[in-house]
Amino acid sequence: MYKFDSSRSTEIFAGATKLSMTDQIEDLLNDLFHWLKCLTEIRRKVDGGEWRQFY
């Protein structure tokens, strides 16, 4: 994840993260819940932001 690219002054975060692919469902769920919590906290802090999803 990149934080504040100066070439786009209005963009705060851009990028992607990759979940570890493992046969252990507990590990996968822990990773997933970790990132969901992080993203939720960011969305709550950045009030009025425009969120876009890229595939």
Describe this structure in words.
With 55 residues, the protein is mainly alpha-helical. It has one helix at 25-45; strands at 2-3, 13-14. It has a two-stranded antiparallel sheet with strand order 1-2. The longest helix has 21 residues, at 25-45. The protein is elongated, with a radius of gyration of 14 Å.
Count every beta strand, where a strand is a DSSP E run of 2 or more residues.
2
What structural class do you assign from the helix and strand content?
Answer: mainly alpha
What is the N-to-C order of secondary-structure elements (H for helix, E for strand)? EEH
- Extract low-pLDDT stretches: none
**Helix segment tally:** 1
Strand content: 5-15%
| Beginning-to-end CA distance, first to last residue | 15 Å
Q: What summary fits the major beta sheet?
A: 2 strands, antiparallel
Query: Strands of the largest sheet, in order across it?
Result: 1-2
- What integer value in Å does the Rg equal? 14 Å
Oligomer: single chain
Percent of residues in helices comes to 25-40%
* Shape verdict: elongated
Q: Mean pLDDT, nearest integer?
A: 78
Gist of the model:
This protein is mostly helical. It has one helix at residues 25-45, and strands at 2-3, 13-14.
Layout of strands and helices, then pairs:
Elements: E1 2-3, E2 13-14, H1 25-45
Antiparallel strand pairs: 1-2
Key attributes of the depicted protein:
55 residues, mainly alpha, two-stranded antiparallel sheet, 2 strands
